[in-house]
From TrEMBL:
<protein>
    <recommendedName>
        <fullName>D-3-phosphoglycerate dehydrogenase</fullName>
        <ecNumber>1.1.1.95</ecNumber>
    </recommendedName>
</protein>
<dbReference type="Pfam" id="PF02826">
    <property type="entry name" value="2-Hacid_dh_C"/>
</dbReference>
<dbReference type="InterPro" id="IPR029009">
    <property type="entry name" value="ASB_dom_sf"/>
</dbReference>
<dbReference type="GO" id="GO:0004617">
    <property type="term" value="F:phosphoglycerate dehydrogenase activity"/>
</dbReference>
<keyword id="KW-0028">Amino-acid biosynthesis</keyword>
<keyword id="KW-0520">NAD</keyword>
<dbReference type="InterPro" id="IPR045865">
    <property type="entry name" value="ACT-like_dom_sf"/>
</dbReference>
<dbReference type="InterPro" id="IPR002912">
    <property type="entry name" value="ACT_dom"/>
</dbReference>
<dbReference type="Pfam" id="PF00389">
    <property type="entry name" value="2-Hacid_dh"/>
</dbReference>
<dbReference type="Pfam" id="PF19304">
    <property type="entry name" value="PGDH_inter"/>
</dbReference>
<dbReference type="InterPro" id="IPR006236">
    <property type="entry name" value="PGDH"/>
</dbReference>
<keyword id="KW-0718">Serine biosynthesis</keyword>
<comment type="function">
    <text>Catalyzes the reversible oxidation of 3-phospho-D-glycerate to 3-phosphonooxypyruvate, the first step of the phosphorylated L-serine biosynthesis pathway. Also catalyzes the reversible oxidation of 2-hydroxyglutarate to 2-oxoglutarate.</text>
</comment>
<comment type="pathway">
    <text>Amino-acid biosynthesis; L-serine biosynthesis; L-serine from 3-phospho-D-glycerate: step 1/3.</text>
</comment>
<dbReference type="InterPro" id="IPR029753">
    <property type="entry name" value="D-isomer_DH_CS"/>
</dbReference>
<comment type="similarity">
    <text>Belongs to the D-isomer specific 2-hydroxyacid dehydrogenase family.</text>
</comment>
<dbReference type="InterPro" id="IPR029752">
    <property type="entry name" value="D-isomer_DH_CS1"/>
</dbReference>
């Protein structure tokens, strides 16, 4: 049974899939202090949060079996992603599920600013009837600058166009073609400052966007500009905004998100030309239902089928790429496990080569499976696809990935070489159409071996009788040979043998083999998730 804890206010109906699932239990515990949460987090496999719970390194360190942190929303700035990655904890979110609600909130804020609705409401409900104090402006034929043309920015632009606004969009990823398709003008930040009557920001908070709208920027804006932030606190420097509002450079500001939350900048909160809401962009029945539903379904998929759709700290690959890589994924881990056993030492350098069709794909996922295979030999369960590259980096092991779209005799071929000083081990592998996974190279030798659970790797001199002697020793110990591959560099020179066995070779057998004349190296190799001979299968 997997235990899920939900620590922010999240829609019960959206969590239905988890509540109904026989393999999951859900505990809803909002309002816990950081200490209280730290105390109980060790019991949980998954944590679901919104923006309120701070998922700190300290909390993650106390999480003994946590596999997933799910953000029921978009922004993950309340989660220490690096700490989660180091611990191998997957972080997912629900991008897109609250886009419409955030875009509608932005429109509501813009209209409220234009017509001063909150101020007019307060005055009227206090008994006044002041029709002159609240003269507004129209949106029609005004210019709106949208900084961040992602999902929400694009929906805001679409809605504002219906109000007759001209849209200037700035986003480093906005192409001329997409701007044309959306019938907006691709602009720079300074075009927006110069021309916009309203500016709305829709970027994440990053080192580039922190303080993006500051004193310098405001000095370049049109006098009387109106500014909206329904994205993240900190993109607009709050003190600079207050100075702009005081001087009249900024006619009004509508702010949903703050540098610190709950918001504490009283000058801004009580400014007569500011409209403020307590981070309500995603607070609608529909958005909350959708975000909760998306993360619930994804948590079930992750635990039940290992499929991940919206990972923050894992590479995202398209469904098509995933389908192409799938046959190589298990094999990637297996060659990692074999290469590290052959090397007999921790590697100081790793080379990965992809050839043919594999070289044309985004194979970050495949690289991670190999690294996981290599590291799991020494680190066992503490390594997974999330933290594999981090752990490798922590160990100071360098790795190179080389891609060559030319075929290496197979439509797709991957080769892994581990180095330890002057020593190295190499495993090459492919998937043969209709025949499945094959190890086709071990060190310098060409082989053709199915990656079965128990393998015996022997390097020897090419002299008569070797095969018979190895076979007799194994037979005397009741070890059945599945397949045997023999290869040699040249007659009478160096040769190798790779055998698949039906069971493990114990120390006694290994000793007898090692003592055989003419053998240069004997190694029993085991692939924990390799195929077992048919009669051993459950
Ligand atoms: N107020 C709320 O309750 C609420 C609700 C939902 C989302 N949000 C926030 O809104 C923001 C946007 O969400 P989204 O779903 O549209 O995300 P998104 O990823 O679809 O879009 C973000 C866009 O910002 C752009 N960007 C990044 N750096 C930039 C920069 N320096 N200058 C200009 N553009 C830059 C990106 O290229 C991207 O297109 C996020 O910060 C999210 O957390 C807030
Ligand atoms: O990034 C988001 O999804 C929004 O800021 C919504 O945050 P919330 O889930 O805390 O309302």
């Amino acid at each position: 049974m997997y235990k899920v804890i939900v620590t922010d206010s999240i829609s019960d109906s959206g969590l239905k899939a988890l509540y109904d699932h026989p393999n999951f239990t859900v505990d809803k515990k909002s309002g816990l202090s950081p200490e209280e949460l730290k105390e109980i987090i060790k019991d949980y496999d998954a944590l679901i949060v919104r923006s309120q719970t701070q998922v700190t390194e300290d909390l993650l360190n106390a999480a003994e079996k946590l596999r997933v942190v799910a953000r029921a929303g978009v922004g993950v700035d309340n989660i220490d992603i690096n700490a989660a990655t180091r611990k191998g904890i997957l972080v997912i979110n629900a991008p897109g599920a609250n886009t419409i609600s955030a875009a509608e909130h932005t429109m509501a804020m813009m209209l409220s600013l234009a017509r001063r609705i909150p101020h007019a409401h307060m005055s009227t409900s206090a008994g006044n009837w002041d029709r002159n104090a609240f003269k507004g402006v129209e949106l029609y034929e005004k210019t709106l600058g949208v900084i961040g043309m992602g999902k929400i920015g694009a929906e805001v632009a679409k809605r504002a166009q219906r109000f007759g606004m001209k849209i200037l969009g700035y986003d480093p990823y906005l192409t001329e073609e997409r701007a044309n398709q959306m019938n907006i003008t691709k602009a720079t930040l300074y075009d927006i400052a110069r021309e916009a009557d309203f500016i709305t920001v829709h970027t994440p908070l990053t080192k580039d966007t922190k303080g993006l709208i500051n004193d310098d920027y405001l000095a370049k804006t049109k006098k009387g500009v109106r500014i909206i932030n329904c994205a993240r606190g900190g993109i607009i420097d709050e003190d600079a905004l207050v100075r702009g509002l005081n001087s009249g450079q900024v006619a009004g500001a509508a702010i949903d998100v703050f540098e610190t939350e709950p918001a504490s900048n009283q000058e801004l909160l009580s400014h007569p030309h500011a409209i403020v809401t307590p981070h309500l962009g995603a607070s609608t029945v529909e958005a909350q239902e959708k975000v909760a539903q998306e993360v619930s379904e994804e948590i079930i998929d992750i635990f039940e089928t290992d499929s991940i759709h919206h990972a923050i700290n894992m590479p995202q690959v398209s469904g098509e790429t995933q389908k192409k890589l799938q046959p190589f994924i298990d094999l990637g881990e297996q060659i990692g496990i074999l290469a590290i056993q052959l090397l007999k030492n921790a590697p100081d350098k790793i080379d990965i080569h992809y050839y043919g069709n594999l070289a044309k794909e985004d194979n970050n996922l495949l690289t991670r499976t190999m690294i996981k295979g290599i590291l799991s030999y020494h680190l066992s369960d503490s390594v997974n696809m999330v933290n594999a590259l981090h752990l490798l980096n922590d160990q100071g092991v360098s790795f190179n990935v080389m891609k060559n779209p030319e075929s290496k005799g197979f439509a797709s071929y991957m080769e892994l070489t581990l180095h330890h000083g002057d020593h190295h081990s190499t495993i090459g592998a492919t998937v043969l159409n209709g025949y499945g996974a094959r190890i086709v190279k071990m060190n310098e030798y060409r082989v053709d071996v199915r990656p079965e659970r128990y393998l015996l790797y022997i390097e020897h001199h090419d002299v008569p009788g070797m095969i018979g002697r190895v076979g007799s020793i194994l037979g005397n110990h009741d070890i059945n040979i599945g397949t045997m591959q023999v290869g040699r560099a040249e007659a009478g020179g160096d040769a190798n043998m790779v055998l698949t066995l039906d069971k493990k070779v114990n120390d006694e057998v290994a000793k007898e083999l090692v003592e055989m004349d003419g053998l240069k190296a004997v190694q029993f190799l085991e692939i924990p998730n390799g195929h077992l001979p048919a009669y051993n299968m459950q």
